[in-house]
Design a protein that fits this description.
By secondary structure, the protein is an alpha/beta fold. Helices cover 23% and strands 37% of the residues. The protein has a single domain, classed as 2,3-Dihydroxybiphenyl 1,2-Dioxygenase, domain 1.
Length: 145
């Protein structure tokens, strides 16, 4: 069977430059691609964890004309701001250390690292409102809460 891999995932963002600063300066990721296609008035902007391996996150601007009319674009923008655009799930070897490091870089968390049956978990949002969960996966233990 032919191998098929996830290459990229995508978040809608309100401002690509603001998102780029957040993901690179605060989260510590690298730019994987930043290509402007003038003829299409389009910017392909991808970021990912350092090292360049694995899927990247495409930071796609909320579309307007001709893809969406003004009202639909505004609705999508509002939904993204409310966190309805989806969730990015990240794993770490040490949730508390990652929380401390990212907090020092200015990321505001929704909650402190908290023990869950599946591990230690916390969450934050990017400047557009997209949900990001950060988890230290541990052996499942329903007694851990």
């Amino acid at each position: 069977m032919t191998t098929i891999r996830i290459a990229n995932a995508q978040f809608w963002v309100h401002d690509q430059d603001e998102a780029l600063a957040f993901y690179t300066k605060q989260l510590g990721w690298e730019v994987r691609a930043d290509v402007t296609m003038e003829a299409w008035n389009f910017r392909w902007l991808c970021v990912g964890p350092p090292g360049g391996e694995g899927p990247a996150l495409v930071l796609m601007p909320v579309p307007g004309q001709p893809m969406l009319d003004g009202a639909s674009s505004a609705q999508l923008s509002d939904l993204v701001a409310k966190g309805a655009g989806g969730t990015l799930f990240l794993e770490t070897d040490d949730c508390q250390a990652a929380y401390d490091e990212l907090s020092a870089r200015g990321i505001e968390f929704n909650d402190p690292p908290t023990a869950q049956p599946y591990g230690i978990d916390t969450s934050f949002r990017d400047p557009s409102g997209n949900n990001i969960r950060l988890t230290q996966v541990l052996e499942f233990d329903p007694r851990r809460q």
